[in-house]
Structures are given as C-alpha cells and as structure tokens.
Design brief:
The protein is an all-alpha fold. The protein contains two helices and no strands. The relative contact order is 0.06.
Length: about 60
C-alpha cells in the first residue's frame, strides 16, 4: 500500500463502528448466568396458563369505543 492512499473519514468511522459492535457482541455471547455454587441459573419464568390466571375478560372502560 502506498503512502498516497488515503482513507476517508466515513470509511474510518464505519470500520471503527464495526469493530466496536463486534467487541460488544463477542463479549455478550460469552456471558452466561450462574449461581453462587457454579450451576447454571434458571432465568426463565415458569409457564402459567393465562386461561386459569385470568378466567374473565377485563371490565369495559366507560367512554371507550
């Protein structure tokens, strides 16, 4: 590459942004939830059937519709 080749500001910022995004994604991909004793933490909520949790539809609001 010769000394005459110049990189535009736009190209430099695009490459810098791609590099920062790559580092952020790479760091987040390795993160895993663990408990104090080293076991994997259960981060999902248990399934609750909405038909039993909410047996009746919500009350109508006056002045709407």
């Amino acid at each position: 590459m010769s000394m005459d080749a110049k990189v535009s500001r736009r190209d430099a910022m695009a490459k810098l942004g791609a590099g920062i995004a790559g580092v952020a994604v790479g760091g987040a991909a390795g993160a895993k939830a663990q408990t104090a004793n080293g076991e994997k933490a259960n981060t999902s909520a248990p399934f609750v059937d909405p038909t039993t949790k909410y047996p009746k539809p919500p009350a109508a609001v006056a002045g709407v519709g």
